[in-house]
Design brief:
alpha/beta, 6-stranded mixed beta sheet, 3-stranded mixed beta sheet, 10 helices, 45% helix, binds 3-methylmercaptopropionate-CoA (MMPA-CoA)
Length: 267
């Protein structure tokens, strides 16, 4: 699997903290005094973290310390009048979030307070999003005189549609947690303070899947969805046959047929 390298986390800046909860790793945005605004060290640290996932980590939870998930780009760090530097700055964000989205393990993002600009772009690169009722979403880039640069044009438009993203950017509107859930920004809404526990619960559930199944869900499914239907169906068959041929699949299928595995019941 990509990124499974050593047994410990890579060196991270003080504004990021990582810890193990068994098979689940928690990555905290730890810059609450700046509302977890993302500076270059944090963005490259996020990329570094997901590029060097310790062995035996099967899922990650990302969340933010303090009252807000993230105020987005640290506005003090955007290269000023150097267009080339700004271009590379945006590409640095893309590279970091790319290894998160297409990395070794699924990522659950826990959202609360402000989830704005680059903070929403970070959340969009996760695979599961849990929002506390305090969460609100916005793309204030246009009011700051800039444009999204951390992947919103690609990931958010796929999540909620180009028209909604366009309207968010033009008017600077905010969506609250319930509205965000309704339009597909989050998968779960929980009470304030309950997000991390819910995120950990979901991450443990995800970590219990066969690793090859999780790999297929992260890497094959989104590519299939972008393909023409005939190629997508072929790719699905190939991935399906590869997953089913794995000894782990054989073991799990036998466990069900022997009545040793849990049933799929309503939860
Ligand atoms: C910041 C940032 C930041 C706070 N960059 N320093 N993002 C925004 O346009 C959102 C800007 N932030 C806010 O609107 C507010 O800070 C919040 C609503 C999130 C929180 O308000 P509040 O009253 O709790 O905190 P505060 O007093 O505004 O901020 C506390 C400190 O954090 C303060 O610094 P201090 O030195 O005066 O204490 C703020 O300056 C600082 N701070 N947010 C820099 N974003 C890849 S492209 C992505 C493009 C974008 O993300 S654009 C959206 C940017």
């Amino acid at each position: 699997m990509p990124g499974h390298a050593s047994d410990s986390f890579p060196a991270l800046p003080p504004s990021l903290r990582a810890e193990r909860h068994g098979e689940v790793a928690v990555l905290r945005l730890a810059r609450p005094e700046k509302r977890n605004a993302l500076d270059d060290d944090m963005v490259t640290g996020i990329g570094n973290f997901f590029s060097n996932m310790p062995e035996n980590v099967q899922a990650v939870v990302v969340h933010g310390e303090g009252e807000h998930f993230s105020a987005g780009l640290d506005l003090a760090t955007l290269p000023s009048d150097d267009v080339g530097a700004s271009l590379l700055h945006s590409r640095m964000w893309h590279a970091a979030f790319q290894v998160m989205e297409f990395g070794a393990v699924p990522v659950v993002c826990v959202l609360h307070g402000a989830v704005v600009g680059g903070g929403l772009e970070l959340a969009a690169a996760a695979h599961v999003r849990v929002a506390e009722r305090s969460a609100y979403y916005a793309l204030p880039e246009a009011s700051r005189g800039i444009f999204v640069g951390g992947g919103a044009s690609v990931r958010l438009t796929r999540l909620v549609g180009t028209s909604r993203v366009m309207e968010m950017m033009l008017t600077g509107r905010t969506y609250d947690a319930a509205e965000g859930q309704a339009i597909g920004l989050s998968h779960y809404v929980v009470e304030p303070g309950a997000g991390l526990a819910k995120g950990l619960e979901l991450a443990r559930q995800v970590a219990g899947n066969a690793p090859l199944s999780n790999f297929a869900i992260l890497h094959a499914l989104p590519r299939i969805a972008e393909q023409d239907p005939a190629s997508g169906l072929l790719m699905e068959s190939l991935m399906s046959a590869i997953a089913a041929g794995d000894p782990e699949a054989q073991r799990r299928l036998k466990a069900f047929l022997d009545k040793r595995a849990p049933k799929t019941v309503r939860r």
